[in-house]
Structures are given as C-alpha cells and as structure tokens.
# Entry
Amino acid sequence: MTTDADEPRPRRRAPAGAAVLREDVTEAIRAAVFEELAAVGYARMSIEGIARRAGVGKTAVYRRWRSKLHLVLDVVSALAVQGLPAPDTGSLETDLRLLYEVTSRALRHPMASQIIPDLQAEAARNPEIDDALQKALREGQVGVASKILAAAEHRGEVRPGLAPDLALDLISGPLYWRSVVIRGPKPPKGYLAALARTTAAALKAL
# Structure
C-alpha cells in the first residue's frame, strides 16, 4: 500500500510550499468512491475506507476534499459534464434507439444500479447531494438530447422551437422511470426499438 506521497512530476514546478497533486492518485480516489458507495452506501462510507480501497493514505484524500460530502459531490457532479456520446445516424428514431441502448446498459451496470438509489435516498435528506445528483442525471441527458433534437430539426423531422423541457421528458422519462425509479428488469427484446419509435412519433407530433 502506498501512502499519501504526492510527489512532483519531473519538470513541473509548484509554488513554494504548495503540494503537487498527482492525477493518477486523484483518479484512484475517485474510482474508490464509486466502489465504496456500491459496497457500503453513503451513510457507512468513510474517508478511511476510500483511502484503503484506493491504496493511499487519508492525507491524500483530505488534500483534495475536506469531507466525504465534498468528495461525493465532486465525483457525482463530474458525471454531468462527461455526458453520453451524441448519436448521429441520420434519423431521429435510430438516434433515439442508440441513445436508449447506451443509457440502458449504463443504468443496468451493477455499480450504477446500487449507487443511484442510495444517493437518491440521501438526496431526500441533503439538498447538496440532491442538487448534484439531479445535475448528474439531468444535464448528462440534456446535452445529448439537445444535439439529437437539433439534428432532427435540421433534417426537418421535428418543427423548430420544440419546448426543451417537454422534449427531454419525452426522451428520457420512460427509460429512467423503468431503470431508476421502479428498478424494473432488463427491457425485453424489442422494447428499446418500440420506445424509440414511439418517442420519435411523439416528438414529431408536438
């Protein structure tokens, strides 16, 4: 096990008295947060457990985040800016189909299926976690959905100026309801294709 030694990289200078934080250590800690959340949940998660799982000392964690709350908020908020790849198949329906396939796989991942419900429970008690979780879940989809709609508008598949909130609810609502809210089983064969076809028809009818 390593300690919290964040030694400067070659040819990189830091201000006098400032520690240079190694990116590989930071990423190891971020990965450990997800693993720890999936294993024990937010309430039982500790800086000690995260550090042990990341193979670093507690000091390495505290150099970057002052508490487990700030650590989780940072990691969850980062999901919002990562987003999903925006499909570009030349058709609204097939763009939606590809988006649903990628999103469905991501939401069914064992780690995500454990972490999201746990953080939703914590969000009911903690406004900061609620804000970060909503940002991660919503903004990650907003960017992709906006690009899909913009491409569909350019092709003349939907009318200009669709209400963005309504369009986003139509695109993302059913799959998130099934996967995150009621935590239903894996969608049966043909479900995602039918969902994409129905959603595309609804958007074109707006």
Residues 1-5, 7-18 have pLDDT under 50 and may be disordered. The chain has two domains: 1-64, 77-205. The two ends are 58 Å apart (CA to CA). The first helix runs from residue 23 to 40.
